[in-house]
Amino acid sequence: MHWEKDVPAVPKGPETAGLTIHWAAQYDFLTRLAGLGTNGANSRMVIELAHIQPGDRVLDVGCGTGSLTLTAQPAAGPAGKVHGIDAAPEMIALARKKAASSHTEVFFDVGLIEQLDFPDAMFDVVISRLAIHHLPDDLKARGFAEILRVLKPGGRVFIADFMPPSNPVLNHITSAIVGGHMMHTDISALPPMLATAGFVEIASGPTRSAFLAFVSAKKPR
Question: What kind of fold does domain 21-218 have according to CATH?
Answer without folding.
Answer: Rossmann fold (3.40.50)
